[in-house]
Amino acid sequence: xxxxxxxxxxxxxxxxxxxxxxxxxxxxxxxxxxxxxxxxxxxxxxxxxxxxxxxxxxxxxxxxxxxxxxxxxxxxxxxxxxxxxxxxxxxxxxxxxxxxxxxxxxxxxxxxxxxxxxxxxxxxxxxxxxxxxxxxxxxxxxxxxxxxxxxxxxxxxxxxxxxxxxxxxxxxxxxxxxxxxxxxxxxxxxxxxxxxxxxxxxxxxxxxxxxxxxxxxxxxxxxxxxxxxxxxxxxxxxxxxxxxxxxxxxxxxxxxxxxxxxxxxxxxxxxxxxxxxxxxxxxxxxxxxxxxxxxxxxxxxxxxxxxxxxxxxxxxxxxxxxxxxxxxxxxxxxxxxxxxxxxxxxxxxxxxxxxxxxxxxxxxxxxxxxxxxxxxxxxxxxxxxxxxxxxxxxxxxxxxxxxxxxxxxxxxxxxxxxxxxxxxxxxxxxxxxxxxxxxxxxxxxxxxxxxxxxxxxxxxxxxxxxxxxxxxxxxxxxxxxxxxxxxxxxxxxxxxxxxxxxxxxxxxxxxxxxxxxxxxxxxxxxxxxxxxxxxxxxxxxxxxxxxxxxxxxxxxxxxxxxxxxxxxxxxxxxxxxxxxxxxxxxxxxxxxxxxxxxxxxxxxxxxxxxxxxxxxxxxxxxxxxxxxxxxxxxxxxxxxxxxxxxxxxxxxxx
Length: 654
Ligand code: NFS
Ligand code: SF4
Description:
Blueprint: H1 2-9, H2 14-17, H3 21-32, H4 38-44, H5 49-52, E1 56-57, E2 65-66, H6 83-117, H7 129-138, H8 148-164, H9 178-187, H10 194-204, H11 213-243, E3 249-253, E4 263-268, H12 272-282, H13 285-293, E5 299-304, H14 305-315, E6 337-340, H15 349-355, E7 359-362, E8 373-374, H16 382-398, E9 411-415, H17 419-427, H18 435-442, E10 448-452, H19 464-475, E11 478-482, H20 484-492, H21 506-515, E12 520-522, H22 529-542, E13 554-558, H23 564-576, E14 579-582, H24 593-604, E15 610-612, H25 616-634, H26 647-653
Parallel strand pairs: 4-5, 4-6, 6-7, 7-8, 10-11, 10-13, 11-12, 13-14, 14-15
Antiparallel strand pairs: 1-2, 3-9
Helix pairs in contact: 6-8, 6-10, 6-11, 6-23, 7-8, 7-11, 10-11, 11-22, 11-23, 12-16, 14-20, 19-25
């Protein structure tokens, strides 16, 4: 008992852990009830300093070998591997793992598309035939004389190459601005097929293969690009074709979207098909009646994490919170079932679910969790799984044993800014175009564009870095595009509504007022970062802002990242030409040649570069300085001052 008390004493105060009030309330409740959440595990699990620096290698059993970050060149591994080799190999493998996740997700969507087109699966249809034609034409498929089915078949065959092709360039390389593509060709980093790139990355990083860090990172870039312009882009485009391309929709976020008197079901994970079918099940009259018979007013379906962000953006489904809130939400006692598929699903969910009698269901053959029930989701009979989950949720509602305490916090915003909608919004229905965006950048109303994306991480104060960073960016007239857990952080902070334009600088707020858009545009899930790549290509194509993505006044950030997927995303943005800055920690030893390669060498090759800062204000200033330097190079810098937000104003903004 005594021991436990000292341990509790060392736990940080809740206000140091999260700026999400609802999550804070639930963390307090969990602590009172002796339930451990990720925040407290992070506080008691000291990060391994050698691993944090990526200064260790366990690629063979002559090791594991540990090098010294303080004296990085003082020692080599048993095989002689230097710090640069070890770090590059570790980085390359993170890219391979992250890319594999997105790519496997994209391939699952493509599998579904093929079966739908072939008529083997009747539960889904092509919802957006216009997008189908647009995507097909973007990669050179003739569509004029073809039926929808013929276009779909041709598109499937082309896109399959994204994964399986052994020689040549992936299909969406055709969307890359010519000058950017030329740089890739010169460097030999145009992806062939994702499977090949990931395989080669794993091969090269095996003991005793590639031991030259520049060469390892070439394959790192190639692998990452096969995600951004490959696996992820296919996931987004096929999901839009099957489930509809997002258009702006008002929706609520935060834990207050749970309803005490309804059966609450959460879908958490990444692939939209589970969620789409769950939507059907919760709307089934029989199941609604069953819920009513159990004493509920209805069935309430809400999303979390990227599954949720995608459905929020596509259908306006309420969103209950981002990654680090997934355990906390069960502490409400109000969650009757949580269904998960793949990615970002903490194993501890199963224990917390157990503490509150919540049903936790895994549904994907790739992801089982000890202690969770597995009900496999089959696309040829989706309702078998989703109906079953709803029925279990109803039974849990009927016999709720735990007091329900839902934080009464909801925030409304507008989400669903697809690349296509931005086109329409700015140019109008007849001449949809990115020209007005470019014009407003050239005339200086909009200083530049930033993509702020990625995870939350219990090692930093939840949402705080995202929100502070974005506030400072918009304050300086930088338009912010968002996806994933970051989008949810900003939505909870109220910045995804048009009214938030008053927080923007004069130029950006003028544009927002004129168009009626928020200064922060939510685009969906992490695979939807591909929408940002397409928007960047279009900005280049429209003209006036240089000939390659590297010349655009843009920057990217993942301020609270945690996953290997985020590293892969970062690398594909960097390889596409974008300055991309990460927070929390960076898995590289400073003062090494590998560090120099990532933080400046890649830029000299005509790509983008990495940046790092844990401070959101410093992060913003670095991004703005980069945007300004690009404006200067384009000759559109005029006379505008960079506004430093002082302490008093920061308080005002908060
Ligand atoms: Ni993307 Fe991170 Fe996960 Fe989505 Fe959220 S944690 S890298 S944002 S849910 S994938
Ligand atoms: Fe050590 Fe080299 Fe083996 Fe890595 S590959 S564990 S550095 S001996």
